[in-house]
Amino acid sequence: MSDTILETEGLTKEFRGFVAVSDVALKVRRGSIHALIGPNGAGKTTCFNLLTNFLPPTRGKITYNGRDITRMKPAQVARLGLVRSFQISAVFPHITVLENVRVALQRQRGGSFDFWRNEALLRQYDDRAMQLLADVDLTEYAAELAGSLPYGRKRALEIATTLAMDPEMMLLDEPTAGMTHDDVDRVVALVKRVAVGRTVLLVEHNLKVVQGLCDRITVLARGQVLAEGDYASVSANPEVIAAYLGTDPGVSGAVAHV
């Protein structure tokens, strides 16, 4: 089995002449936590949408586990084990936390998500749902409506529903966006925990999160790969510093303080 689980070649997306992602070559090592970072407008979320086929590329190729997935539908990609979260909270607010996870677990039936099925049939998923809630420290919230959760807990619930899809690789879009310091620390610890035995690719703005969490970092700027490496090398790269801060490239180490 190859060490590379996800790879892109010449990945490009144009919108009516505007090039959002340009010729991106990305390799994600199996079992790693890999970050995709860059200033606002760098093309990070567009790149995520391409990788999971929520957007079709203008050109280029995406390979997952040695299989060309470039033209697959998003549901087909998810069934292969490549599952993503979203930048905007995506829980069902008017059902309980437990029921949110249970809906995701219905994927195991291989059919549609049946909200109207007999309650006794749906309860077959409860034990596994509670295990997943325990994994993300939400056991005590199981009976609460998802819409009533604090923001950081909603993000934890999204990770639980992503885990319910039994992914081999998780793509997390801004998992700590808008969080308090305590929530950030909790989610970082959570990502480390759920990454065991999996591969994680995440978009993240908080560079301190990236520093403490990620094995490898790819920096995008204006839709292109600007740099790649570990945190020490990327944070000292003059081009990365200039892209983030608009400063003189000679200002060493500035990114470390963003």
Please give a handful of descriptors for the protein shown:
6-stranded mixed beta sheet, 33% helix, 10 strands, alpha/beta, Rossmann fold, 24% strand
Notes on the protein architecture:
The strands form two sheets. Strands 6-7-8-3-9-10 form a six-stranded mixed sheet, with helices on both faces. A four-stranded antiparallel sheet has the order 2-1-4-5, covered by helices on one side. The longest helix has 14 residues, at 151-164. It has helices at 44-51, 74-79, 97-105, 119-122, 126-135, 151-164, 181-194, 207-213, 231-235, 238-245; strands at 4-15, 18-29, 33-37, 59-64, 67-68, 82-84, 169-173, 199-203, 216-221, 224-229. Strand 4 and strand 5 (67-68) form a beta hairpin. The chain is 33% helix and 24% strand. Residues 248-258 have low confidence and may be disordered. The protein starts with a strand and ends in a 13-residue tail after the last helix. The protein is of the alpha/beta class. Helix 3 (97-105) packs across helix 5, helix 3 (97-105) runs parallel beside helix 6 (151-164) and helix 6 (151-164) runs parallel beside helix 7 (181-194). It is built from ten helices and ten strands. It has a domain at 4-90 and 167-257: 3-Layer(aba) Sandwich (Rossmann fold).
CATH superfamily of the domain at 4-90 and 167-257: P-loop containing nucleotide triphosphate hydrolases
Run of helices and strands: EEEHEEHEHHHHEHEHEEHH
- Category by helix and strand content: alpha/beta
Cα-based radius of gyration, to the nearest Å: 19 Å
What is the number of beta strands? 10
CATH topology of the domain at 4-90 and 167-257: Rossmann fold
Parts with pLDDT < 50 across at least 5 consecutive residues: 248-258
